[in-house]
Each structure stands twice: as C-alpha cells, then as structure tokens.
C-alpha cells in the first residue's frame, strides 16, 4: 500500500505543474495506477469502518470523486484537480448522514468533516441552535481526542457579530462562524505509513460526534 500511494503522490505532484490534457493523456497509465492505489486505500478504510458507521451497500466507486474539474464557472481553466478525494459514509458522495472526507495531495493531505458551504437558512438554523445551547457543541470540540487530532475549528468567520446576536454573547466566537470545519492535517510520511488506513478510521471515530451534531440539526438520517 505505501509504495502505491507514493506513486500516487508523485503523479499528483507532477500533475500540479503539467495540468493540461496533453500531458495527462501521455501519463494516463500513471493516473490509472494512482487511482487504483487510492481505491485500494478507500477499500481498506471501508473494510475497517464498522466501528464508525454502517456503510450499507456503499461501494468504493460511490465514494471517490472524479479528478476532472468543473471549469464552467471558474477563472481557473485547469482541467484536473491536483488531489484525489473520497467521501466515506452510507451513500458515499451522496450521503445525507454522517460522512468523512479523505484528501490525498502532496504535502496537503487531510481528513475532514463538518459544514463547508451552508445555505443561509441552514446557517441561521445552526446559529440558533448554538445560541440556545452552546455547551453541546463546546463539549464536542473541547474533547481531548478532538483537540489532539483537529485542534481548533477551521473555516471562515464574520469579523463582526451576526445580525440578531450581541457582541458579548457567551458563544459569539461560534456564532460568528460561516463554516464549521474539523481538519486533521497529514504529511506525506503519515500517508505512507503501513497503518494509514487504521489511522483514518481512528480519526473518523473521534470525528463522529461532531458530524452527528450537524446531521441532527439538519434532521437527516445517519
């Protein structure tokens, strides 16, 4: 596994500096080998995932994102992503419940969860829940294992208090947030360890209550 993932990291590093269809076509075999290595990692993780979630009939292919970028509304017309990504949960990329994102990228690999781009009404609902009972989320993010793996919450925040909330509200630090992200950063040495799949599962176990908090607010299954 580690040797194959090294192949994937090397390919992605080269792709970053040769992000065009001609180069990709000429290196298609390297991409196929890299994707196969990533699929093997995801399969290994899913095989160990029962203590975290019941994945039902979810298959590896349901979890992995395409490497092609959607450039229709982007100024950056690079046709390919410089990472390989997967969302593990019951339903894979289409999961409505708790789900866990794995990003493989040279020097920038990570495991993540939370709320990335909430709609205005969703964000309003999250803030209302936090304002009413901030201790529930604080207990999750202050857990020693959560702090060990994720540190502080990541993501964008407002510079001033959101409308309807006083600047001295006891949870104003959380209420200012526009994103609620937990991010466990990984270097290339971490990725290449023999127990990498087991480490991902361990991190996801700690991430589960955080994921569950936001799934419950959305009233979705999982």
Q: Helical segment tally? A: 10
State the major sheet: 4 strands, antiparallel
% residues in beta strands: 5-15%
Oligomer: single chain
Described by the principal axes of the CA atoms, the overall outline is: globular
C-alpha Rg (nearest Å): 19 Å
Helical residue percent band:
40-55%
SSE order in H/E notation?
HHHHEEEHHHHEHH
Q: Span between N and C termini?
A: 30 Å
Total number of strands: 4
Q: How confident overall, as mean pLDDT?
A: 95
- Low-confidence spans: none
Biggest sheet, spatial arrangement of strands: 1-2-3-4
Question: By helix and strand content, what is the structural category?
Answer: alpha+beta
Description:
This protein has 222 residues and is α+β, with helices and mostly antiparallel strands. Helices cover 47% and strands 11% of the residues. The protein has 10 helices and 4 strands. Strands 1-2-3-4 form a 4-stranded antiparallel sheet. Strand 2 (100-104) and strand 3 form a beta hairpin. The longest helix has 23 residues, at 196-218. The model has no long low-confidence stretch (mean pLDDT 95).
Write a concise synopsis of the structure shown.
The chain has 222 residues and is α+β, with helices and mostly antiparallel strands. It contains ten helices and four strands.
Short descriptors:
single chain, 222 residues, alpha+beta, four-stranded antiparallel beta sheet, 47% helix
């Amino acid at each position: 596994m580690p040797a194959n993932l090294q192949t994937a990291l090397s390919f992605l590093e080269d792709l970053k500096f040769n992000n065009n269809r001609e180069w990709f076509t000429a290196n298609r075999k390297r991409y196929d080998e890299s994707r196969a290595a990533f699929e093997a990692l995801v399969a290994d993780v899913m095989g160990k995932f029962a203590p975290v979630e019941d994945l039902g009939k979810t298959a590896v292919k349901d979890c992995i994102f395409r490497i092609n970028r959607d450039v229709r509304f982007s100024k950056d017309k690079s046709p390919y992503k410089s990472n390989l990504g997967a969302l593990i949960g019951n339903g894979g990329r289409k999961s409505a419940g708790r789900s866990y994102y794995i990003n493989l990228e040279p020097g920038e690999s990570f495991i993540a969860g939370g709320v990335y781009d909430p709609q205005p009404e969703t964000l309003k609902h999250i803030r209302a829940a936090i304002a009413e009972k901030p201790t529930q989320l604080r207990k999750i993010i202050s857990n020693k294992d959560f702090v060990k793996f994720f540190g502080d919450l990541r993501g964008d925040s407002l510079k001033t208090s959101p409308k309807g909330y006083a600047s001295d509200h006891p949870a104003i630090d959380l209420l200012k947030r526009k994103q609620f992200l937990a991010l466990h950063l990984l270097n290339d040495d971490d990725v290449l360890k023999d127990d990498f799949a087991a480490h991902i599962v361990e991190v996801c176990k700690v991430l589960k209550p955080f994921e569950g908090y936001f799934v419950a607010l959305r009233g979705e299954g999982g």
